[in-house]
Amino acid sequence: MGAIMVEQLESYVSGVLHTPLRLVEWERAATLPPFLRAEYRFYTGRILDAELLFCLSTQERPAGVVGKHRMAIGERWSDPVVFAFERISPHNRKRMIEAGIPFVVAGTQLYLPMLAIDLRERFKPQSRKRERLSPSAQVVLLHALWDHRGQANTPTGLRDRLGYTIMTMGRSLDQLEAAGLVRVKRIGRERFFEPAEEPALLWRKAQPLLASPVRRRILFECAPPGMDAVAPVSGLTALAHYSDLAAPRVTVRAMYSGELPAWEGVGRFRMVPSVEEAWLELEVWSYSPRLFSTASVVDQLSLYLALRNDSDERVSSALEDMMGRLSW
Fold it and tell me: How far apart are CA 135 and CA 287, in angstroms?
């Protein structure tokens, strides 16, 4: 057991979870009983917000024995303990999972029940062509198009900029890389990406994979106070802002689906059945329309995706006018 196993473990966990893992020898290992020090090498490492103790061994041990070792180690380490083996038999793997013992086999399985993580080789999805990008991957692509100089071009930077978890951002990069929309390279334990094409070219190439952000539309009697702070104008109202199209009588605004319950639950809205009775049309989006909005108006790229299938020729003409004014 040596540096190679440590490096393999760091690389595997970092690659699977899209978050860096750095293992450091545990300073208090000498306080453990001699039989444990003979069985394992001990390293500490952080995954997400959890501090873990990794017990590395070249030989697997029966689940019952590992459980006893876990209890003995727990007398000197209060945080989660993870056992790392070079290989593990199917029977023993099953017993370890039944006992709830965290373990990892580099390249094969990562079982961390305290973090709700169970990734197994036999459950890895077969790569297939996606018909659409996931909402989070679409957000990353829009970020790359609007900020193509790469101010936040790592999963960590994307988390801070877009508000998703590092794991979600890592999976989104996997989708975009598989679709040929971004180029990803690893420097140390971090992944960096850049758009695969110039913005205008990338936008055209991505069209078949992009979906409207609008999940549903709801008509309301009026917009309650404070609505403009969380729901930028969208739809034909926003298109009138970006083009010569006349603004509609009913104001259209957009709100992230995750924020809607907080407004509905306190009776701030009164829905109406027809547009004749409405003063507000609310679009419920699959991602936050405020991520790329400016001047309380949704961004042009998201707006185009929301309206591109509108059959009205005036709308199509206004969309073409809006996109023609973009300076990529």
Answer: 7
Q: Please list, residue by residue across 287-308, b when 16 or more beta carbons sit within 10 angstroms of its beta carbon and e when fewer do.
A: bbbbbbbeeebbbbbbbbbbbe
φ, ψ dihedrals at 259, nearest 5° = -95, -15
DSSP string, 144-197: HHHTTT-SS-SHHHHHHHH---HHHHHHHHHHHHHTTSEEEEEETTEEEEEESS
| Sheet-wide strand order for 280-285 | 214-220, 280-285, 251-256
Residues 6+ apart with CB under 8 A from 314: 245
> What three-state secondary structure class fits 280?
strand
- For residue 197, count CB atoms less than 10 angstroms from its CB and return exposed for 0-12, middle for 13-18, buried for 19 or more: middle
The answer to whether the beta carbons of residues 239 and 303 sit under 8 Å apart is: yes
Residues facing 104 on adjacent strands:
84, 110
Residue 192 CB-density burial (10 A; 0-12 exposed, 13-18 middle, 19+ buried)? middle
pLDDT tens digits, 136-156 = 999 999 999 998 665 668 888
Cα 269 → chain centroid: 31
31-68 tens-digit pLDDT: 999 999 999 999 999 987 789 999 999 888 899 999 99
Q: Are strands 251-256 and 280-285 parallel, antiparallel or unpaired?
A: parallel
Residue 163's nearest CA partner among 320, 297, 293, 288 is: 288
